[in-house]
């Protein structure tokens, strides 16, 4: 066997191992995203125990992907692992806010800077969805609390004034969050005004009926 052939065999073996690690990590990342998405759906249905279980499964899958890629930084930063991290952050934040718990920190979730910021940014959309659901139930105080949390998240995102290369294009996520926030604020204001008007009309009708 020539020296070149030996060199090529080593390269082939290294790439084979790297490919195997990539496939394992990719599968674990996909499972993380699937469990995280299902957790968010469970939260919106009020199934908090199931949501918590799914988040735990997502965390296990994410840890497995991270372990597999620890010796392959080029694959680690390829993008799919960061997407899984982001979905995991979003699932945790959505679950905690809607179940009235503190949002966990970056270190607690083991997420990168970019994944944590983008995950929180996308949580704003899930909070809007929940807020619109409870508007119909007339839970005014809770709606205002959710809107306040959305505003707080957006406010913190706007303070991350760093180049997009460092934040993974956070400016776009922040812009989307702002649009969602403004639309939600308008929807909530209109809904509350309508309810106040209905209450005044009902009170007026009652006064009229009492005079008859």
Keyphrases for this structure?
212 residues, mainly alpha, Methane Monooxygenase Hydroxylase, Chain G, domain 1, 2 domains, 84% helix
Order of helices and strands: HHHHHHHHH
Mean pLDDT comes to 89
Q: Which CATH-level-2 architecture of the largest domain?
A: Up-down Bundle
SS-based class: mainly alpha
Shape: elongated
Record field, number of beta strands = 0
Q: What features would you describe in this structure?
A:
- Helix content is 84%, strand content 0%.
- It has 212 residues and is an all-alpha fold.
- The chain has two domains: 1-106, Methane Monooxygenase Hydroxylase, Chain G, domain 1 (Up-down Bundle); 112-212, Methane Monooxygenase Hydroxylase, Chain G, domain 1 (Up-down Bundle), CATH 1.20.58.
- The longest helix has 42 residues, at 3-44.
- The radius of gyration is 24 Å and the shape is elongated.
- The protein starts with a helix and ends with a helix.
